[in-house]
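Anyone have tokens for MerR family transcriptional regulator? Sequence:
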Amino acid sequence: MPAENAPAVGNLDDDDYPAYTMGRAAAVLGITPAFLRAVGRAGLITPLRSEGGHRRYSRRQLRIAARARELVDQGTPVEAACRIVSLEDQLTDARRLNRDMRQKLDAHGIDI
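Reply: yep, here.
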């Protein structure tokens, strides 16, 4: 019988499942826990909290933090890097929405 707090097997493929502790997340990315806290304070990522109050991160959040770290390593201040990553994500979402809308219009024979 699985432990009560063990993740369900289906969660292992979920990019948004908070599988990483702060220490593990920092180790995987090769960064410090302080950097993860900084991007959290900047509002770029919001880790979930375990029942004990510990921060837990998803793979998606790790990718976002890694992108911010790339910008910081290039000399961008943390706050600015977080804003850039946020804007990049918004642009990606807008492009996806635009593509989806165009496909729907094309499917209905509407030319724009």
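The mean pLDDT is 91.
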